[in-house]
Every structure is written in C-alpha cells, then in structure tokens.
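Hi V.,

You were right to ask for the full record rather than a summary. Here it is.
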Amino acid sequence: MFYNIIPLLFILVCGLIIIYIITRKFPAMANLDISAIPQEKQKQVKQQILQNRLKRNFNRWFLVINKILRPIKEKVKEWFRAWHENLLSLKESYRKEAGASDKDEIEKLFSEAEKLENEEKLEEAEKKYIQIISLDSKNINAFKLLGRLYIEIKKLPEAKETFEHILKLTQEDTDVYAGLAEVAQAEGKFEKARKNLLQAIEINNEISGNYYNLAKVYQAMENHKEALKSIKEALKIEPNNPRYLDMMLNLSIILGEKAEALDAYKALKKNNPDNNKLEEFKEKIDEM
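Predicted structure:
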C-alpha cells in the first residue's frame, strides 16, 4: 500500500516544481514585446498597408458612387418637396372648405336659437348654443348668449361657470362682467355684483345699462346717494329712458332732492305719459 502512495507523491512534487518555475518566469513572459519579433513586426506592417489600401479604395468608390447618385438624390428631394407642398395645399383647402361649412351651420344654429328664444322654448335654444360651441369652442358670442339664457331660466351656477369660461378666452369684456354681476345680484351677493359692474364700466363707460344695474345694486345695499349718482350717469347716455327717469324720480324723493325730483317728473311725463305712477309721484313732490 505504501508503494502505491509513492507515485502519487512523486507526481504532486513534480507539479509543484512546474508551478514554481512558471510563477518565477511569468513576469518576464508578460513583458515580452511581440512586436519586437521581426516576423511579428513584418506581419503588423503588412496589415497596416492592407488597411490603408482598403481605406483609400473605399473613399475613392464612395466619391464615385456619390457622384453618380447625386442627381438621383436631388430628384428625390425635389419630388418629396413637391409632394409635401401638395399635401399642405390639400390640407389647407380641406380646412377652408370645412371652415366654410361650419360657418354656414353656425349661422343657421344662431338663427334657430334666436327663434326658439322668441318662442320661449329656452331649453331647445340652450341645445342650439351648445351645438354651436361644439363646432367652434371659442365662439364667445355663443357663450355669452348661453350665459344670458342660463340667467333667464335661473340656472345661476351654469351661468356663472359660462361667463367665467369666457374670461379664459378674453380678459377684457364688459358683457361678461355685467353677466357675472347679474348672477351675483340674483344670489344676493351685492358687493360682488358692485365690483363686477365697476369692472364692466371701467372697460366700457358708454353702456347705460351697466350704470342702471349699478344703481339697482346700490339701492339693494341701501346706499341711495351712490344709486342716484349711478342713475344720473345712465341718463347722460339715454336721457329719455322712462325706466331710468322713474328710478331718478324715486331716488330724488327718497333723498329729498325736490328740484331734481321735479325735473325727473317733467321728463318722465313727457316721455312716458301713460305711466300710472305719475300722479303718485306728483303728490310726493308737492309734499316735499
């Protein structure tokens, strides 16, 4: 049995000696410069020459092919440019045709909505305005008319939402602020209504109805002096408006302004002689 172990030990010792020799010689082998060997160096030079030749041939053939293909490329570019321009032209033509068609349809819907409102079919009119907006999402006139309609049918949240949406499309619009003021007034929010009307007047101070509505808001706030100032501004624009003269007369009596009350009475009698309150107003003026 001992004799069987001896060969194994011998093999193991030999293996260790070989590993030792390789380990000692490995750094020297690693530092060996293969390119310094004449045969290897010659081989590398040949490879470099072949690579340079291939590169020169490739460049030469590339120039030749590019020269041949240049006219074809220009033709392709020209064709693509013409095709693109034709596509844009067709798109613009289609857009104009569609726009013209939508415009005709919108005009028809406006006419139908107006007729339905005159017939007091307000819910059907509402649908027409919504159809217009579906065709033109930035049609401010449709939004305004829809907002006014919502006020008329007492859908105040919808009216407010509609007018506020218009402000996203256009910041400066006296009708929108007047509409928001009317909604606020209907909700009993008189201070908010006052601010919206002042904003409307700041944008356009030539609309008498805004001064009249402001006077009504001041009346609701029991601020009769400011109400009188506002109705006077309305009368500067429409001096013969019976509704304005009626308010002017009433406010003048409340504030004890006899001369102004008498002037308003005379103007009201002239422009609205059938007014049932004339005799009552005259009695109140005589008592002042």
